[in-house]
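Worked example 3. Consider a protein that binds thymidine-5'-diphosphate.
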Amino acid sequence: MKKGCFITFEGADGCGKTTQSKLVQEYLENFGYEVIWTREPGAKGLGQNIRELLLHYDGEVAPMCEAFLFLADRAQHIEHLIKPAVNAGKIVVCDRHTDSTIAYQGYGRGEDIKQLKYLNSLATGDIKPDLTFVFDVSTEVAQKRVGDEKDRMESAGMEFHKKVRYGYLEIAKQEPDRVKVIDANNGIDKVFEDTKRVLNNFLSSL
Ligand code: TYD
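Given these inputs, the predicted complex is written out as structure tokens:
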């Protein structure tokens, strides 16, 4: 593998993608790959301030303001972390990225998806994940896993989160080569088995 690659982990709040992304990091490192684990929003530096605003600001937030804050974080993240790491031959494992904006601000909040796709491409300079996992879980199970201490996005309600789930499944239908859906209703071990199967296929195609 000359150039590195970029793998994203997506799904509704409570889908278990953070656990899976960390297991994947460990798995890849055991194979000798150099892996950077990162997340959106708020990987480091300025992004952490943006994350604080997005998740904990308790006043009104206009939907497009919310979208632009996620996009601003992404532009910073791509430029200062993702692009340099991929160019240096590393595997970047990223907990949420462009598909979160389409699922949450597009399908969830109802903002124009075509416009959001365009804004995503501006924020990323058209760098796209090579592989994306969507961890799909019923909204009821996911909300139970999140528990009672919810941040601003997690508090958006059951209907909102159902739309987000639907959005992810639509994204996967539209881009089946890049986006792979994993049934995340199962326990951690089974979900990881399914994740590894997809990952191994992907690695053997590099
Ligand atoms: P976080 O605590 O990182 O949640 P999780 O562990 O589920 O990833 O919070 C990120 C929240 O921000 C989550 O509710 C999804 C939301 N989000 C968007 O609405 N749009 C986006 O573009 C991104 C990256 C995240």
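Take a moment to read the result before moving on. The pocket of thymidine-5'-diphosphate is lined by residues 13, 18, 39-41, 55, 70, 95-96, 100-101, 104-105, 151, 153-154 (CB under 6 Å). The CA atoms of residues 131 and 202 lie 8 Å apart.
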